[in-house]
Predict the 3D structure of the following.
Amino acid sequence: MNILITGASSGIGRQLALDYASDGHNVVVCGRNSEALSEVQKNHPDKITCSSFDITDKASTKEALAKVNDIDVAILCAGVCEYLDTNNFDADMFERVFRVNVFGTMNCVEAMLPQFNPSARLVIVDSLARLLPFTKAQAYGGSKAAMHYIARSLEVDLKPRGIKVQTVSPGFVKTPMTDANDFEMPMRVDVEFASQAIIKGIRKGKRDIAFPWVFSSLLKLMSIFPESLQVKLSEQMARKQSS
């Protein structure tokens, strides 16, 4: 298969590229850091191709992805996370986070749709953070909730074209992004676990690939509680983090 992965210079995207290449697939790794992408390519130079661009730049995204043909699976992993301090409210932070997580991802979708093979898979990585009103996660969780909604809506409209839309909802995964967190991250898994869960889920055609199973099941259960109870649970978790 021909696999395209954004955000492939580190974290989950990097591991996915290595695992798919190890299995003999052709992989296009995308990201802003050309040096980091080259380091990924060195592991499988015959299977991995680099494409360096900034997904928030629509013109460069379209130019770069126009050169990629016959995409079987596109996994859109690129994303950023910032946490809000309501004592020093920063509306610009929402714009920064949404620019990458939502608008950057949609730039990729627009550019790739003409390159998809029949029965291609579009895989959008959101987060389990979309399920509950977590403290300080207004921008990050909101962007991931938006991505999940967009993906489900795209699933409806792209089905007649034979394109299957799948979402990935990870919990905490040990990556450079989560290494910066200063709070407890329950049931955090490594990138090897995350990559295999995603690859298996894509292969099985799962609509939403959520992991780890226990953590995702707990959050999905809490997400159907009345909103007032969800807020109380989040308040308790916030107090625990600050204690």
About this structure: The chain has nine helices and seven strands.
